[in-house]
Amino acid sequence: MPWVDKKKCSGCGVCLSACTVKAISMGIDKKAVIDDNLCTRCAECFIVCPLGAIRSNSENLSMRRGSGMGGGGKGMHAGRETGRGEKRGRGGL
User: Fold this and answer.
1) What is the pLDDT of residues 24-41, one digit of tens each?
2) What are phi and psi for residue 43, nearest 5 degrees?
């Protein structure tokens, strides 16, 4: 599930325009808020955010622990770090 890093969000609204299901709104602090019930996890908000303020739950330890799935889950980018050889001694290939 995506989340907003409030320290990075400038409130520009680019993500609002990109979200086809209208799962993003502006909170009272003028920062983006993602409605988990509406979000389809398409990742378009990740792509368009100019400041990288919208992040995957795999980067938020508190969200992973609450998922009951040990952090794997079926959220955005689940399992992306596997199968690339990072931990296979290939020198960072």
Assistant:
1) 999 999 999 999 999 999
2) 75, 5
Please indicate, yes or no, if residue 35 is contained in any of the structural domains: yes
Mean pLDDT in each 10-residue stretch from start to end of the chain (93 residues)? 90 95 96 94 92 78 47 44 47 50
Domain that holds residue 57: 3-66
Question: Considering the domain boundaries, does residue 80 fall inside one?
Answer: no
Alpha-carbon distance values, 7 to 26, 53, 82 (Å): 15, 8, 29
Mean of all residue pLDDT scores within the chain? 75
Count: domains in the chain: 1
Give the burial class of 9: count Cβ atoms within 10 A of its Cβ; 0-12 exposed, 13-18 middle, 19 or more buried: buried
Q: Which pTM does this prediction carry?
A: 0.62
* Both tokens assigned to 67: 């998922």
CATH of the domain at 61: 3.30.70.20
